[in-house]
Design a protein that fits this description.
By secondary structure, the protein is α/β, with parallel strands linked by helices. Helices cover about 35% and strands about 25% of the residues. Bound molecules: flavin-adenine dinucleotide (FAD).
Amino acid sequence: MEDEKFDAIVVGAGPAGSAAAYTMAKAGMSVVVFERGDYPGAKNVMGGVLFREAVEGVFGKFWEEGAPLERPVVDQRLWMLGQESVVTAGFRTQAFAAPPYNAFTVLRAQLDPWFAKQAEDAGAYLITETQVTDLVFDDTGRVIGVRTGREGDLFADVVIMAEGINAFATVKAGLRRDFTMENAALAVKEIHALPPETINDRFNLRDGEGATILLLGEFSHDMMGSGFIYTNRDTLSVGVGAIVSHLVETKVRPNDVLDEMKKHPAVQPLLAGSEIKEYSAHLIPEVKYSELPRPYGDGYMLVGDTAGYVNFLFQEGCNLAIASGGMAGRAAVEAWERKDYSAASLSTYQQKLDDSFVLQDLYELRNGPAFFRNHREFFGIYPRMLNQAAEDLLTVSGLSKKTVGMSILRDLHRQRPFWRVGKDMFDAVRAFI
Ligand SMILES: Cc1cc2nc3c(=O)[nH]c(=O)nc-3n(C[C@H](O)[C@H](O)[C@H](O)COP(=O)(O)OP(=O)(O)OC[C@H]3O[C@@H](n4cnc5c(N)ncnc54)[C@H](O)[C@@H]3O)c2cc1C
């Protein structure tokens, strides 16, 4: 058994697990990483936009080191869809087209192996096709190792759980409760192949530039949900997601939501002639701040989606996973230097999270999930009203502008009385400020 003992075991070679493994191995700890997939990223899904700052904080200048990146994002658009119209907003800057960049579009099947390779090059030992089924505890309740189907039991001073959202072993061991249907969104995603020049033309991009479109509106069937279209080199990532409890309640299938979005007259020309290369579905944590699990205990830490660290409003998850993995890795290195892996010693992880954007942002947005779940009009009625108002305003008729303005106000009031709009705005201010 002693032969099988490592300084640290990491369960899961997603971005969070690889960040933790890389940080610990680089500091000289002996680290083993278990990944149930054939290779890291084999089953992982993301939109995906990778935000540079947090990744650089752990892996250094990854864009200069051969990380498989698709396009730096220079153009971020918000589309609010009506039945056959769209109201748009956006931001584009060439500042994001040059180093150090702000964000990149990525494909996880290529990116995850690169992160895992950094951990391996730093000295971590990666074991694929092996699922951790249970955690091993000592008599005092401290986590001392893991049980796997293929490799039997392996022991370590600290175990970092980076299983992603489902986290079967974490939940089974009682380190976290299952996330409820209210605390998770189900997303479906397709990858559409198109020649790079066609993508450039359709999205008004130069070679090596990328765009993202976040879509809200009619297609979401008044659920708390949204869609996305991201430009990769020679593919588009196209998907939708909605809160699971809303999907159950409305009985709408996510694939139908995606089809509806794809058929919208503003979306269809972007995808025309493309070939669907891949289809995937995955859950995303959207956990109330007050229901986030304690991310550490005697001999263990929880990182990334396992701990529920996703910023639903800004659609950030991978950067929180990598930042939290890096922080857990550093907390483990400090515990290794102290030779103390008790909960008290590992609580430095919580302090690091508290002092960082990870928990500070989630705290600021703590009322957001409940607000949007109870104010679904932001996903349905409001985009509809905006589209109607824009169409009326921009339709040139024999009527005076004042008459048109009054008619728009009457229409808007009919769709949602102004006192309710006022209350929605008041609730929004209270939820976010
Ligand atoms: C459709 C979609 C779009 C998204 N878009 C974005 C985006 O644009 N930007 C962004 O920042 N985030 C995005 N996210 C969120 C982001 O993907 C996650 O937050 C991030 O992947 C979390 O990383 P992780 O390492 O914690 O978990 P995961 O990426 O889920 O990795 C967990 C790993 O653990 C392995 N594993 C699980 N259990 C075991 C076990 N018991 N034994 C061994 N191995 C195990 C899995 O196979 C997997 O490799 C998106 C998510 C989805 C679903």
